[in-house]
Amino acid sequence: MAPASSHPLPRRRKRNGWLTKLVDWKIEDLFKRRRPPPVQRTVYVNENLPEDAYEKGKVKNTWIYPTNQVVTSKYTVITFVPKNLLEQFRRIANIFFAGIAILQFFPQFSTISPGLVILPLLVVLLATGIKDGYEDVKRHQSDRAINHSKVWRLHGADWVNPNVTGPKQKTYSFAFVERLFRRNRSHEVHEHEHEEKPTPETAPQVAVTHDDNNEPDNPRFLETHHNLDETKAHWKRILWEDIAVGDVVMLRSDDAIPADILICSTSEEENVAFVETKNLDGETNLKSRHAIPSLTDLRTPSDVAGTAFSIEMEAPQPNMYQIHGAVIVDGEKQPIDALTVLLRGTVLRNTRWCIGIVLYTGEDSKIVLNSGATPSKRSRVEREMNPQVFVNLILLAVMAVACAVVDSILERRGYNNHAPWEYGANRSDDNPNVNGGFTFGNALITFQNVVPISLYISIEFVRTCQAIFIYFDKDIWYEKTDQPTLARSWNLSDDLGQIEYVFSDKTGTLTQNAMVFRQCSIGGKIYKGDSAENEPVDVDEAAQQDTVAPAKETQTGSSDETTAPQTAPKISPHIRFHDETLENDLMHGDSQEHSRTLHGFFATLSLCHTVLASYDTETGMITYKAQSPDEAALVQAAADVGFIFRGREREILRLQTPFLDHLEEYELLNILDFTSARKRMSVIVRKLEEGDGRIFLLCKGADNVIFDRLKQSSGNEQLKSKTGEDLDLFASEGLRTLCLAYKVIPEEEYNAWADRYHEATVALEDRDDKIEAASDAIEQNLRLLGATAIEDKLQDGVPEAIADLKRAGIKVWVATGDKLETAIAIGHSTNLIQPQSNVIIVRGGTYGTTKSAYNQLADAVDRFFPEANIMDSPLVHPPDDDKASQHRSDRFSLRRMPTGASSLVGSRNGERPGGFVLVIDGVALEHAMEEEFTKELLLQLGIRCEAVICCRVSPKQKAQIVRLVKDGMDVMTLAIGDGANDVSMIQAADVGVGISGEEGLQAVNSSDYAIAQFRFLTRLLFVHGHWSYARNGNMIVNFFYKNIVCIGVLWWFQIFCSFSTTYVFEYTYLLFWNVFWSLAPVIAIGLFDRIVDDDILMILPELYRYGRERRHFGLKLFTIYMLEGVTQSAIIFFFIYYTYNTTSARNDGWAVYQYEMATTMVVATATTVNLFNGLNTAAWTGWVFFAVSIGIILIWLYTAIFPEISPGWFVTDAYGDNRFTFPSAYFWFGIIFVVLISILPRYVLKSYKFIYRPDDIDILRSLRSIDPKHDIAHDPAIVGNLQRPGEEVDDDRLTMTETRQSEDGPLRRSLQGRPSYQGGRQSMEGGMARANPSQVDMSTGREGTSRGFDFSTEEGGYAMRRVQTHLSERHVSRVSLPAAVEARTPKRRQVSMNIFSSLRRPKGRSQTMPASAPPTDKKPPPPSPPPAPEH
Predict the structure, then answer these.
(1) CB-count exposure of residue 141 (10 Å: 0-12, 13-18, 19+)
(2) DSSP H helical ranges for 1210-1281
(3) Where would I find the H helices in 1267-1376?
(4) Given 3-state DSSP classes, what are the helix, strand and coil percentages for the chain, each rounded to the nearest 5?
(5) What does the DSSP assignment read for 49-74?
(6) Of these residues, 260, 505, 692, 1350, which one is catalytic?
(7) How far apart are CA 491 and CA 488, in angstroms?
(8) DSSP H helix total and E strand total for the chain
(9) 20 to 30 A Cα–Cα from 1390, which one of 6, 195, 865, 1418?
(10) What are phi and psi of 1055, to 5 degrees?
């Protein structure tokens, strides 16, 4: 049994009710417009609103819909000042500063001009406000870019939208600026309107059943057409934010969907539209949507303008997979569901045009409902400062109360004893009874620097500079797009150094949205290809889902031979599969049997799919359009080898092979579609060739599914065993695998099965079960061909980045909308799931069922973490304990369920040393979040796993996952993503990072930091985050220290001035304390300090634990510095006071003036704090030397010059003071002795720690100082011996042995005693594949090892249902007309055992003909223009 966890469990946050409400209260709630509860709506098109929509002549609020304007900014011109001030006054210190400033407006407490007193506070508020305003201006600009995108809307012919839309929100731009901007840009917009989309004359033509002259995207219907009659219905370009509910819009291919839109008609046959939803759910495969049948005749602007109907819709709700409504046309209703609606955030693909009705806009759209308002985030350091400031305020209050009480007592005593200084102290505003109160106020003013206002100015300045450092860091500057890393929220830099959990999206964040065919195993032989090694991969081009193949002549394709002309749309010329060994085996194979297997393998790839092919007669190129990126990669790979799919016309498939001079044709008989349950896809085709009408079943799917259906034979068993080994090898490299198999079906067997299958498809009861049973019956006795290996191409450096994050002790959770197999495959390829990992799969339903999410989670806890005693907590049990006991019994029975796949069971499942990885799907997660006890159980299991992968999750669930960990465990979280579906997750995390990827800028607009690549995250955290946290923490405690030393000196003087709050220093020294004398060193710490060099932090991610464990800042560190400041203030004051109080410092013997002693004190204090701050700096650069010395130099110059100012200029109490201090020995020796004695304890402790108890950072810093050129990255004594994250050590330091090379040689330390921790992938040696992770599915009890199966496609989509309907109708017609079928079916003749007839080489062909030579000079005839794409 594996250990429960090597990581210490995070802190658990516990709050009572009122405190939780207080802490969770948000400023933005005050300014958020409360929306009425959502209600059902009826959208009218060309019909007036009903009478019940009006009340007193005005439209009711429930009939007024929000605009399509989406605002992610926090402020407007009106709300900026009050909202920003409220945010800033969440700081306790700001409230205190305001109170002190107001207090000094009263004459009893005034020190200098009240206006001058409030100036520092105004500077703080203004500087912070400018920073916040600048950040929000950037958000406004991003919002403007989106809201000012354009779309075609119906206009003219007196068409009016009767539905009412509310007013748009005001932005930061004033009206005249807006008008000026539009006027200056208007001509530019008109110039480029024609360039945004290709016109139908230049765009790829799609064959449809309608007249092209009446197509809605015809230029004569567009506003830009020069002969357009604007009185007639036409399309007009408008801004997204001007779209209203009920508007009719026209979308064109590759257009982003601006709102939630009901489909009326499309350019495709049967009005199908294809959309890319990766911006919503993370899935890269296209989804098919279809129009409402009653609206399909709305194909031109005039059609829409002349048709009246209404649409009843449910109230807006966030569930993206559920939409309910109805279209009412002429009194007849037709249902609306999710398959008839295009959601905002998706992109129209493979569809020339689409007409739709806007249903939901702006705040009511699904994607916005799944996002939250832009939060006002504060860093943890700032939140932890509030208690420290509160402690200082208590200290200040105690000091003020003490002064008030003692002063009142002494005044009363002196007044009663008729003390002369109390003469006249009997007025209403001057007597012992009230003077104590005045003393209290004066004490607050005197000691106010206990909470320094300059600290907040300094923090804002330092964080601004840290944001600039991030911007100019070339190591995280993406040169390809010339994009720097941007800090959009400047106040979170120190949070980057304390991250404990990273929540990441998959698509576009970890992956490039590109599938690349890398390897294959055919007949037991592996072909790895050479394109991956010899050719660069263009990420932007690879991301396109359309691929091309040559079709000009019949030849074997290769990466060099299949480059497409630049005029071909959407090509990916750099991604090709080419293998010389494969070509030789294919054309001149030594074994005829292996050659047949090769031919069958690639023919199966070319035919078993739903890809569309579009042939360009001018360029000779074929463009493949696929719903699934996996299918596109497979078909393209087959084309590269020479098996080119030439398209489909209805049920006729055409295939070009490298051996024949004509196209082969196959009749598509059936498609047995892929589903998550089946894990396979099959097509049944008939060869259309004279004398050869054989029927083939071609199948591809998961290894275990295919293996279970193979024909029992010795050849199959041997090939199965060898292919299984190859699959293990592919899976170990993180590749997605599929197995291919086939069989020949006798005619009689097929006819009987086809009748059974047709009956199943029309069954009224248990249709799905009957279809699956029929499909399973025909998919038996298969012959194995081989396996494919596809790479879901990762972003550069992702596996290494995740490995480094894990080495740093950061747990990575992935939340994706992809299916479970895809999520697991990405876990393998990204190093999230390591070879020795144990994978726990949870997928289930509501509590109360045997396979509920709760039962699966509880079973996993009992099975894999029994020592943790999680189930002993009452929080993880449902309210009904008796029922829970029964469920416990049910859970354990899952382990004993027969699986039918004993060969897949791991021998050491759950006991591998790589830790546990939890994989949970969206259904189980949904129910877990609804049940508090299940949520707690999920949290306890998740934090004990090395990683968690959440699949099939919605944007809202992503945010729930982040909040579950963040609020439940009080840990620092970071969320990273690149799409609109990641916005809610980014906003919920402590730090949100957006990636500027292919899915738009929605994530970047809502993020705190914007990066171009996931790999940049490591440097952002390990270097900038760690440095910023260490710098800011060190700066803050040193800031408190230097001020407590100054205030301490003032406080000790109160003992000798009757606690009258008299200043011991001349006031100007105190006034300039936080400006000139002591500010520079702490600023230098915040800007230039380096705990260790950046290259070391990147080489050794384990060092990040110092930030993750919050070593650089906290209440303990604050207390130490405060006590040290109090001690040093006592040393400075009493040493100098009693020195001057013993014997006169003057040569003439006169008594010492107070400011002679005070000047010595203030110079000694300033010198001490500057040197002390310098002593706490790790890196002494030129700037640090300057900063430490400048304060000392300035105060010495001031001390020399200020007393020389003549009273004729202005009167000062320090006039002539330097005439007595500089000649005095007390002045010089007092400063020297006080400074040395004050900083000596800190120096001794630091030296002792560095020599006898060094930590990792001390050792590495020393090593870099002694040997700057030392290769730390390859020093096994360092890399292999750093403390692992979560490892417990007694003395918080490394085990060391010290040796000296010689008496004069430097001290060398060797690190020893700890095993090496390698976070990267393990290498494979000797050709042996590494072990694959074991996994257990808690919903079935099935155990096994993963072989990388994954296949991404739409399940149960409308396009597939349409194809199935066509095939079913064809079957009925065949049965009804048997004579016609018999006449059409070619007669069978004796054929060889070749898999396909094309594999038989024509007689007379030379066996020595080069593989690249065509078999004949005659070019194959091009196929007919493809019909409307069928998916």
Answers:
(1) middle
(2) 1218-1221, 1225-1252, 1256-1266, 1276-1279
(3) 1276-1279, 1358-1376
(4) 45, 15, 40
(5) PPGGGEETTEE-GGGEEPPS-----S
(6) 505
(7) 9
(8) 45, 42
(9) 1418
(10) -60, -30
- pTM flag (> 0.85): no
Q: Which residue has the tokens 């304890």?
A: 1241
Which of the residue ranges 280-284, 927-931, 1227-1231, 1287-1291 would you say has the lowest mean pLDDT? 1287-1291
Would residue 1213 show up in a list of annotated catalytic residues for this protein? no
Class of residue 122 by CB neighbours under 10 A (exposed 0-12, middle 13-18, buried 19+): exposed
Task: At 766, list the tokens.
Answer: 């248990």
Determine contact, residues 1162/1198, Cβ cutoff 8 Å: no
Residue type, 1336: V
Q: Residue 784: helix, strand or coil by DSSP?
A: strand
Tell whether the torsion through CA atoms of 634, 637, 641 and 644 is positive or negative: positive
Task: Check residues 673 and 175 and name the one with the higher pLDDT.
Answer: 673
Cβ atoms of residues 666 and 648 within 8 Å: no
Give residue-wise pLDDT tens across range 541-578: 443 444 455 544 433 333 333 333 333 333 333 347 88
If one compares 472 and 226, the residue with the highest pLDDT of the two is 472
Q: Which ranges of 417-431 would DSSP assign to H, the alpha helix? A: none
Which stretches within 736-790 are classed as H helix? Answer: 747-761, 767-778
Backbone dihedral angles phi then psi of residue 867, each to the nearest 5 degrees? -70, -20
CA–CA separation, 299 and 265 (whole Å): 6
| Across 60-69, 268-277, 1249-1258, least confident range | 268-277
How far apart CA 254 and CA 204 sit, in angstroms, is 13
- In this structure, the strands spanning 838-842 and 1334-1337 are parallel
Q: How many residues belong to the chain?
A: 1431
Classified as helix, coil or strand, 1393 is coil
Tokens of 1218: 């330097």
**Both structure tokens of 503:** 């929540």
Kindly state the DSSP code that residue 1076 receives in the 8-state scheme: I
Nearest to 1283 by CA among 6, 3, 5, 4: 6
The pLDDT of residue 311: 93
Dig out the tokens for 157 from the structure.
């012919």
Alpha-helix residue ranges (DSSP H) falling in 1060-1102 = 1067-1071, 1079-1088, 1094-1099
| Residue 383, C-beta contacts closer than 8 angstroms, at least 6 positions apart | none
Name the 3-class secondary structure at 266. strand
> In whole angstroms, what is the distance from residue 960 CA to residue 964 CA?
6
User: Cα–Cα distances in Å, from 563 out to 20, 550, 793, 1413, 1420?
Assistant: 62, 8, 21, 18, 20
Helix (H) or strand (E) holding 439: helix 432-446
pLDDT tier for residue 540 given thresholds of 50, 70 and 90 = very low
The predicted-structure confidence for 746-789, as pLDDT tens digits, reads as follows 999 998 998 898 888 888 888 888 888 999 999 999 999 999 99
pLDDT-derived band of residue 1222, with 50, 70 and 90 as boundaries?
confident
Query: What's the per-residue H, E or C state across 842-897?
Result: ECCECECECCEHHHHHHHHHHHHCHHHCHHHCHHHCCCCHHHHHHHHHHHHHHHHC
CB 353 within 8 A of CB 365: no
Single-letter residue type at 1229: F
Pick 1385 or 965 by higher pLDDT.
965
Spatial separation of the C-alpha atoms in residues 1280 and 1283, rounded to whole Å? 9
The CA-based diameter of the chain, rounded to the nearest angstrom, is 138
Tell me: pLDDT of 242 over 80: yes
For 149-176, letters b (16+ CB in 10 Å) and e give ebbbbbbbbebebebbbeeebebbbeee
- Measured CA to CA, the distance from residue 221 to residue 198 in angstroms comes to 15
